Amino acid sequence: TVSVALFTSDLRLHDNPVLHAAVRDADAVVPLFVQDDGIRRTGFDAPNRRAFLADCLVDLDAGLRRRGGRLVVRSADVVAGACAVVAETGADSLHIAAGVSGYAREREERLRTALGAVGCALHVHDAVVTALPPGLVVPAGRDHFAVFTPYFRRWEAAGVRGTLTGPRTVRVPDTATSAPLPTRAEVTGVSPGLAEGGETAGRRLLTSWLHGPMADYGTGHDDLAGDATSRLSPFLHFGCLSAAELVHRAREKGGPGADAFVRQLAWRDFHHQVLAARPDAAWADYRPRGDRWRSDPDEIEAWRAGLTGYPLVDAAMRQLAHEGWMHNRGRMLVASFLTKTLYVDWRVGARHFLDLLVDGDLANNQLNWQWVAGTGTDTRPNRVLNPLIQGKRFDPRGAYVRRWVPELAGLDGAAVHEPWKLTGPDRARLAYPEPVVDLAEARARFERARGLG
Ligand code: FAD
């Protein structure tokens, strides 16, 4: 018998229920990745993610080869590509991870119909992408939690599934032919500081994280200059690392840092269970508030380019452009600045993030944007983050700003957060813009728009 393990957001050998079942249940297995025309058409395969994905596929192939197998890659509509491989190899079962987006669900339905017609069984595996499957814990009479704290209580009590070891050997039938693997070098428009992708790089980073910086995560995660978060998000997005394994390994280590880290992993599951229940929330307001968003093209462009005149906002936006990644505190600030200070539709910001973020993820990105914009699950939808106060708290010495905004690198200490206070020739020498907006006026405008006094 032959089975197909169709990889999607689970590009790993360790703790992969899809690959585990495919290898266990058949004599030979086709480890398949289809570069999906459908995803390409949506524009979701932005350069940074394409480059990281190429690394992931090359690494997955190398890992399979060490076990006697190899990765089979096709470029096609995912259902057509999978069915072609099933026909060529005579496979009688196909395994895939359950997805949460509308697109993933539709893919699953189309596979079910197409494979059913040729007598090939479809096996959909839960808790591959998330630690707990969406829908496993729900409040009475509802299909998802809309508030994180009660969700987290139930999430902790439910317990995450045990982890699986990777296969020792993988036998691939000769009839399974592959297109050449994509490479990072083929992708243009990649951010210069983009991290290396793949399970090997992810496991290396995970090991150093667990044995070092995680201990201080509880107190240090908001320190922008300290850069003291795990940076594991792209590896989780592509499934190079398993969320369930991360929960177990962090808990094994223990301590307040591990607890805080596990809580963030639960946030990831939380947003996934919201999107699974409300796939429309990818682009529609989760809780419409009647916002009549502003749309000033110059202000939006200044935000995108990191030229708003607010150093902390600009530093974060430039980190995004350079690395394809941004610190969570930066993400919250720039999203609040766009949606509340400039009062621009959150979809404009979410789109820009998806164009650049290497971890750009429909559930996490869209629902975090909605959370910050106040159209989502935040229980304080009208809070506005002030870049000056955020600077004092999370970049008190200004080191983060100096790192990312070279025009301001000559300013000492916290003065870097308020360059407009300079006068005379000192100000004239700075090639840095005036603020695009007055914070007090912007706040009053937002409060009027939301009908707050
Ligand atoms: P850590 O602080 O080390 O956290 C560990 C892991 O927990 C992360 O890798 C991530 O998987 C998860 N996590 C942490 N915070 C959150 C959160 N608020 N929501 C969901 N999961 C979380 N995360 C993405 O993975 N993809 C996105 O597209 C994305 N877009 C965002 C957009 C906005 C406007 C905001 C405010 C947040 C967004 N996040 C997104 C969440 C968060 O900022 C990133 O997951 C985090 O910064 C990644 O860095 P890290 O791996 O070092 O995180």
Task: Give a description of the structure.
This protein is of the alpha/beta class and 453 residues long. The chain has three domains: 2-128, Rossmann fold (3-Layer(aba) Sandwich); 130-160 and 199-277, Serine Threonine Protein Phosphatase 5, Tetratricopeptide repeat, CATH 1.25.40.80; 297-449, Orthogonal Bundle (DNA Cyclobutane Dipyrimidine Photolyase, subunit A, domain 3), CATH 1.10.579. The chain contains 20 helices and five strands. It has helices at residues 17-25, 37-42, 47-66, 78-89, 102-117, 148-158, 199-211, 217-220, 233-237, 243-253, 256-277, 297-305, 311-323, 328-341, 346-356, 362-373, 387-394, 399-404, 424-429, 439-449, and strands at 2-6, 28-36, 72-76, 93-97, 121-125. Helix 15 (346-356) packs antiparallel against helix 16. The chain starts with a strand and ends with a helix. The mean pLDDT is 97. Residues 1-130 form the Photolyase/cryptochrome alpha/beta domain. Keywords: Chromophore, FAD, Flavoprotein, Lyase. It is an enzyme of class 4 (lyase).
